[in-house]
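re: ur question from yesterday

yeah so i grabbed the chain u mentioned. its 71 aa long if i counted rite. heres the sequnce exactly as i have it in my notes:
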Amino acid sequence: MPIDTVERFLAALPPPDRERIRKLPHAEQQGLAEAWEAELREDIDLDVLSELSPPAAEHEAAARVLHRRPV
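ran it thru and got these structure tokens back, copy pasting raw so excuse formatting
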């Protein structure tokens, strides 16, 4: 069974951010998760990092999304 995009996004966040995002409406969580997936797909630097450490790439992408779209 595939893991939900929102849950994957939340798992990439540090605990304080994770809890803050969990309190948002699901539509906002989904929008952030979609931006996170786009960041992972489109950023070439993250491709390189992903080869070395997928969790580190996911964390970096999540941090970038929250930096651009503060909640």
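noticed a couple things. The chain has a mean pLDDT of 89. also The longest helix spans residues 26-42.
anyway ttyl
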